[in-house]
Amino acid sequence: MDSKRFTRRLVALGAAMFLCALVFVVTLFDAQIVNGDDYLAQSIRTNAKSETVKASRGVITDRNGKVLVSNRAVYTLNFDSSLVSSDELNDALLRVIELMNAQGVEIKDTLPLARTSPYAYDTANGSAKTLVKYLVSLKWINEKNVGDDGLPTTLTGSALYLKLRSEYGIDKALPTGTVRTLIGLRYSLASAKMNGSTTFEFASDVDVSLISLIKDGNYAGVQVDTSSVRVYETDYAAHVLGYTGSIQDWDDYKDKPGYTLASIVGISGAESAFEEYLHGNAGKRLVTFDNDSGKITGELYSVEPKPGSTVALTIDIDFQAQVEEALKNTVSSMTKSDGIDRGAAVAVVQVGTGDVLALASYPTYSLSTFRQDIAALSSDSVRRPLWNRATQGKYAPGSTLKPLTAIAALESGATTVREKIYDSGKWVYPGYSASYTYCWKRSGHGSLNVRGAIMNSCNYFFAEMGYRMGMDTLREYYAKFGLGSPTGIEIGDTAGRLPSQNEGENLAPWAAFGQANQEYSPLQLANYIATLCGGGDRYATHLLKNVRSSGSGALEYVYDASPVQTIEMQSENLAAVLAGMHDLAAEGAVSSYFKECIVDAAAKTGTIQTGDTKNNNGAFVCFAPYDDPQIAVAIVIEKGGSGAALASTAVQVLNAYFSNTSASSAITGENTLLG
């Protein structure tokens, strides 16, 4: 063969091989370097899936670090409607319902309807806002057909039940209980889809045996997941701690990082108030799996979940327990005596900080059994155990307001510490004999200065002070001490109501001794006393002490707030008012109870008129020690009679705090005549 021809062929072959190699290198470069991430992602998507890794919720402790609420890992069951055709959805869900019923496992849903006929609306089960959004999307109602409670006004609960049964094509021959459960699940899946998800968690804290039945039975649409449930380490402070639940309105959380539709969030109490600290951030992991067996073969990458932080509250749980027991014993003793059901509350505030040391509302409930008891608790309209009377209860203050009226009178110049007023037993409105009020002591107290008027709870003296000052001055001073406004506590409280009057009226003489139309919560009363005995520094009441990282324990936040207001008071005036309160405890009508108190204290009773003289509400405020105030206490007992009947409970509270041991059992006391 010609050598030149051979050489040309060899060169051509080499060039061809070079070109092939070049094309291969360029293609490889493009695949791995230029578009490597895109091709890798496409490869991953064929045999991998992204999973949300739920973050553990933060722990709640008391001020001393005692754990109040923690977590326990559990298995949960989700239903993914995207894995089942619409024609087979009801049948798939019915299989699940049959299994759950056979195993005695509760099925959750978010439909705000009662679970039994006549299917009234029940927002404890789900969000009214989400329901309305869903019904508007179906054009069954418009946004104007919503009442003040957020529920539809043109569609009853029973009518909604029937319409949903028809909408979901549910067989009428099914048992009514099964129909309600199926409607609830279909609605929950539909509302989840409305918010961009196809998955709904329908069972929590299920055991391994049920999971085995799920896997062996090949239940379409059902997925097993892991989560955690709250563990309550105490039977006390239920109204303070609150509870968690599923997200009721996704619009409230969809723009917040770390949340999914399956997230558990705080619904009430500290769980809700400190959600931003407790929730944590969910993680993400992408796992590969075998298409044939479905087994996970590896984790390609992950974003670690960040557990919620540890929240320390200001309450002392041991002291809280003693306060709740003292209140319970007193109320139980009263009810045993007269057969009257009544509610009550105690608030204890630290002077000079606004720390809430104890907050008790009676009757109460157990967070550990809350889910099982919710129906009975919600329907108890007489005792109302879910209502936090300490923060939300509104009561006329009665004579517990007299120390504040006294300060107002002294500081405004309406009287002086030396002026004495003669109490004849009946105060008559000047120039209008038809308008008058009696002192609780009909024969009168004779001549009294402000200190003696507080000790003897003289209505005559304070009616005169109210007349001299007028309503505007009273309202001004009451507002300075925080009455008529929320106290600032994070779990929320009522603003109460300052006294008011119509044009041409003058109710100031009656408002001055705690009557007229004013109402305040026990927490407001305790904080006003803390402000008074603290020298005029009014702090916002609060439950948050500090926040620590769940991992390192490093401090993330420490509550350290200045007074929201400082009320200037002349030392002579303040001393006279506090001395009057001290005289009541040391020498006055409640001195027999305070002989058992281990610290020197000051107090004021109050009888709150209800229109039924035999069942007046009782109120009591106190602080201690007298010469160095540390805590202020307010107690209200509905239908509790005279405030003196509450004195023994107050002594137990003070003794519990200052000695860490309970005082003797509650004594309801005698029917002492006090204003």
Describe the structure.
The protein is of the alpha+beta class. The strands form seven sheets. Strands 2, 3, 4, 5, 10, 18 and 19 form a seven-stranded mixed beta sheet that branches. Strands 12-11-23-22-21 form a five-stranded antiparallel beta sheet, with helices on both faces. It has a three-stranded antiparallel beta sheet with strand order 1-8-9. Helix 3 (89-103) crosses helix 6.
Task: Map the helices and strands.
Blueprint: H1 3-34, H2 36-47, E1 48-53, E2 60-61, E3 67-80, H3 89-103, H4 128-137, H5 157-167, H6 176-194, E4 199-206, H7 208-217, E5 222-232, H8 238-241, E6 244-246, E7 264-266, H9 269-273, H10 275-278, E8 283-289, E9 296-303, E10 310-313, H11 317-338, E11 344-350, E12 356-362, H12 370-379, H13 389-392, H14 402-412, E13 421-423, E14 426-428, E15 436-438, E16 446-448, H15 450-456, H16 459-469, H17 471-480, H18 508-511, H19 522-533, E17 537-538, E18 544-548, E19 555-558, E20 565-566, H20 571-586, H21 591-594, E21 602-608, E22 617-624, E23 631-637, H22 647-659
Parallel strand pairs: 2-10
Antiparallel strand pairs: 1-8, 2-3, 3-4, 3-5, 6-7, 8-9, 10-18, 11-12, 11-23, 13-16, 14-15, 17-20, 18-19, 21-22, 22-23
Helix pairs in contact: 3-6, 11-22, 14-16, 14-17, 14-20, 15-20
